[in-house]
Every structure is written in C-alpha cells, then in structure tokens.
Amino acid sequence: MTRTISAIFDAGVFRPLEPVELADGTQVELQLQLASDTSCDPGDENSKKAWLDYLERMESLPARPASDGLSNRDHDQIIYGG
Q1: 0.70 exceeded by pTM
Q2: What are residue 59's DSSP bridge partners?
Q3: Does residue 38 carry a pLDDT above 70?
C-alpha cells in the first residue's frame, strides 16, 4: 500500500501533520520529497546569499595572532584546552 503523508522533521523524528492509522511498531519505508515552500532549500537565492556573506566574513578574519597572541586558528585549543 502506498500513501502520501505530509510530515515535519523535528528533533530527529518525522511528525505527521495528519492522523495516521497504523499499529504502533509498524515498520514503514519513507521516500522524502521536500515541500516546495521549504526555507532550507540550498538552491534558494536567499540561502545562497547568506552562505556567501558568511564565507566572506570568515575569510576576512585575521590569520595572524592579535595582540593577545591568539587567532581564529586557536579555536580548538581555547575551547577544549590542549
């Protein structure tokens, strides 16, 4: 049996947007098709612009240490110690 059900992916779980009449524990097979109005479409022009702006800002960070001797390359050492 094949049936199309709209759902939202939330915290690692698909949550149906309508009642589903299946017994608990029923195994199903999912085929994903993103809704056309999704805002996380990587082909979306706003998403592309946001990523390009982000990359430009990251590339503009200084590669050399600041006056305190630290740079963006010291991130892991600062956060996790080392």
Answers
A1: no
A2: none
A3: no
